[in-house]
Amino acid sequence: MAAIPVGDDLCVGTTNGNTLPTGFSFPGSVREITFGSSTGITSGSTYAVVIRISSEKGIGDALRMGQDTSDQYPGGLKCISSDNGGSWATSVTRELFFDTQASGVSKDKYFPATTPDAEQFCYGDFWIAQTFTASSSYAITSVILKLRREGTSFPGTITVSIKEASDVPIKANTPIPATTATDVTLDQATLAWTDGGNSDTYNVYYGPTSGSLPLVSSAQAGTSFSLSTYLPLAYGVTRYWRIDSINDAGTTTGDEWSFTTISLNSPVDIVTVGRLVAAANNKIWYESI
Hints:
single chain; mainly beta; Immunoglobulin-like; 7-stranded antiparallel sheet; 6-stranded antiparallel sheet; about 55% strand
């Protein structure tokens, strides 16, 4: 799975984008952004370097960031948000140039070349991030990026922060009752499922109409849901349900599952059994047993 930025900024720094060079020549386009305070980075955990400029800046004043298209950095991915960090999409073929620092010592770094072979724009509501997996535990104090501007563009204040990064949840699986089961009894007490991975809570949807399920439980922690308020079920009915998995990185919509209750079958032949009481004048009288 691809990790994306989540939560609040752990540390923040700024730099003046109007003083950037108009080309990617070294060393002018290598800009170190120092954070107002350091924050602890834990070995093996995933974080994100998040870059943005003022939402009032249009593409004419866009910041340009150096990136590489060889997809050789195994520790993370570039992420793009078009709504000021509200949601994120990942790029599997691009990584930003970056170098995290701990009091002047390089820690986690991806600078594969002197000159980038591509560039990423950042402006307005478009925020850009690069995730990385910490190679050791350290206090991050700054980050170095490869930045430039166009000759007539003035990006203004560039804000860079460090956030935690997390994978979005994986779909829930292994439904109980099994999906499309046709032998469910009328007293089926619960729905149950298995976490696919990375989920904190779940939304449960349940109802009689496929594709239009009402929410019956919101942000619950457990992996089962009681059907007590819906019992007893009727004979031969189909019910549909879905589990959406949730964490700080987002919500993953689950598959729609269904089950059908047992049928009530009437007897094929009905036989009346009686006993003879009397017979006379071509008539027979009997009573049921």
